[in-house]
């Protein structure tokens, strides 16, 4: 046996050993739905699941009953109208509706049947959802499906919920709160936010409200003083400092931070009555796994809000962590940027593009993440949603720019990206969120970033980015054929390249390699090459 063939065999054995050890003893429970290393033989493009069933790697697992011995994972979704969800589901013949995409073979995991016009929606038995907008207005409180309220519109919770339900065996409860038409600079303003002045106008701090006749006013000037509540004279304050006074004032009686307060009140009311919202709860305990946030439209209409957005957003995240500190859980935070107009600026020829104030908000949102803010490391991830923008011409409603033209794909794509960003944070990995915008998010999730099997890719990965595909590989069965006379150095390089190819193939066929397993494989191959060539 030649040394070259021996090198292949030893390298391949090292890889298989590392893979087998990882697959049989170190596989995270998260991914036990897909197994490796069993004696069950499947077709080349299928894998053996833990229940010994051959399944295509891109196929969603059947919706399973959750493991009620594990804690209930709670995800809290907040924001304004696009968090509520305005992706059209019907009609099937209209481009950009969910049914139109399903008729083209996309989102198969959402249905159990489709007759060409209507779908029978799959219900996730392991994920429940409730939406409370106001203190008494409640929708849902049911298992997650496209029609968990009705099947007129779809929101990002559908794809987000399918991803976390697919990844985790825990029972899951999604609590969605919030109301449309809310700004970060006023409605979501968190506790601790101080009053400030910008452009000659004053903006209230948390708990304050302007003394103006318009109860929805968000900003004020000294000239507004005295126009409400019978206060006159040059010494009266521009803002009331008491929330109770604001509530009893003229107009709507709103105060800065009122939506923040309402959301917290609603979430805590639901958490205090878990059995009513997760009937199968067996007192095994629950944890707040994370928060999901999508907002940013209304802040553009008040001059002082865009420039203040980054500060307010950071304060908002910190306030949430403090607000829910009494509850167990990892409390990760994922949020999405605004995407209005996509990547092109607004101009005379591109009326759909982003506007200057929207761009300021977008940049502020992008900057609030764990990579740029050390205090948020491993806690906060942001999703850039501009790659998911669809124009009015390819959407159900051409003049609904503020609701992404009610294109269902946008809401599915954003939910998909936020779901994988949350998985990254909870599993302490960077494997999944990095593929956002480079593959078709409608595709069922895979264990390793890959190009999508969908026929409708959203974009093309850059040439410098490597996305491994799932391909089966086999070890060499015979010695490579003889080649023309080459130098020993060239021969070494060829052998290294061939070993590297085997290594790459083994990595891309594995189920969900952790950093530990990757390191062990790298170490084995590196040690072998060092011993052989040094």
From TrEMBL:
Residues 448-484 have a biased composition (Low complexity). The keyword Signal applies. Residues 1-23 form the signal peptide. It comes from the Eukaryota. Residues 437-498 are annotated as: Disordered. Keywords: Signal. Residues 488-498 have a biased composition (Basic and acidic residues). PANTHER family: 9-O-ACETYL-N-ACETYLNEURAMINIC ACID DEACETYLASE-RELATED (PTHR31988:SF19), ESTERASE, PUTATIVE (DUF303)-RELATED (PTHR31988). This is Sialate O-acetylesterase.
């Amino acid at each position: 046996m030649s040394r070259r063939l021996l090198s292949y065999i030893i390298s391949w054995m090292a890889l298989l050993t590392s893979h087998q050890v990882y697959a049989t003893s170190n596989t995270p429970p998260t991914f036990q739905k897909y197994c490796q290393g069993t004696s069950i033989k499947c077709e080349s493009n299928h894998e053996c699941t833990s229940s010994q069933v051959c399944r295509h790697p891109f196929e969603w697992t059947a919706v399973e009953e959750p493991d009620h011995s594990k804690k209930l994972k709670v995800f809290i979704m907040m924001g304004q109208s696009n968090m509520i969800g305005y992706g059209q589901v019907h009609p099937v013949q209209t481009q950009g509706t969910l049914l139109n995409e399903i008729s083209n073979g996309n989102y198969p995991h959402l249905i159990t049947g489709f007759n060409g016009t209507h779908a029978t929606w799959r219900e996730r038995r392991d994920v429940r959802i409730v939406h409370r907008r106001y203190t008494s207005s409640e929708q849902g409180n049911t298992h997650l499906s496209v029609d968990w309220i009705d099947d007129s519109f779809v929101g990002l919770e559908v794809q987000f919920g399918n991803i976390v339900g697919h990844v985790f065996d825990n029972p899951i409860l999604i609590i969605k709160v919030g109301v449309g038409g809310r700004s970060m600079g006023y409605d979501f303003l968190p506790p601790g936010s101080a009053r400030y002045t910008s452009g000659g106008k004053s903006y209230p701090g948390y708990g304050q409200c302007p003394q103006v006749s318009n109860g929805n006013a968000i900003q004020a000037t000294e000239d507004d003083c005295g126009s409400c509540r019978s206060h006159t004279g040059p010494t009266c304050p521009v803002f009331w400092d008491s929330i109770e006074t604001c509530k009893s004032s003229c107009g709507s009686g709103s105060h800065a931070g009122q939506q923040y307060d309402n959301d917290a009140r609603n979430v805590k009311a639901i958490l205090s009555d878990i059995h009513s919202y997760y009937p199968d709860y067996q007192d095994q305990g629950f944890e707040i796994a994370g928060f999901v946030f999508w907002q940013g439209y209304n802040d553009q209409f008040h001059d002082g809000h865009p420039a203040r957005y980054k500060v307010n957003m950071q304060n908002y995240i910190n306030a949430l962590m403090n607000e829910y500190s009494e509850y167990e859980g990892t409390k990760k935070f994922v949020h999405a940027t605004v995407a209005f107009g996509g990547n092109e600026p607004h101009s005379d020829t591109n009326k759909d593009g982003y506007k200057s104030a929207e761009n300021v908000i977008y940049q502020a949102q992008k900057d609030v993440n764990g990579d740029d803010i050390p205090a948020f490391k491993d806690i906060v991830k942001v999703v850039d949603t501009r790659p998911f923008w669809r124009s009015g011409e390819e959407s159900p409603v051409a003049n609904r720019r503020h609701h992404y033209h009610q294109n269902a794909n946008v809401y599915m794509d954003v939910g998909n990206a936020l779901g994988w960003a949350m998985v990254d944070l909870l599993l302490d990995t960077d494997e999944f969120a990095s593929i956002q915008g480079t593959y078709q998010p409608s595709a069922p999730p895979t264990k390793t970033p890959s190009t999508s099997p969908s026929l409708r890719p959203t974009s093309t990965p850059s040439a410098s980015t490597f996305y491994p595909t799932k391909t089966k590989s086999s070890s060499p069965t015979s010695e490579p054929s003889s080649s023309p006379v080459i130098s020993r150095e060239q021969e070494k390089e060829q052998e290294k390249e061939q070993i590297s190819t085997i290594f790459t193939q083994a990595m891309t066929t594995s189920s969900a390699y952790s950093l530990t397993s990757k390191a062990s494989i790298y170490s084995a191959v590196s040690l072998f090459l060092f011993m052989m060539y040094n």
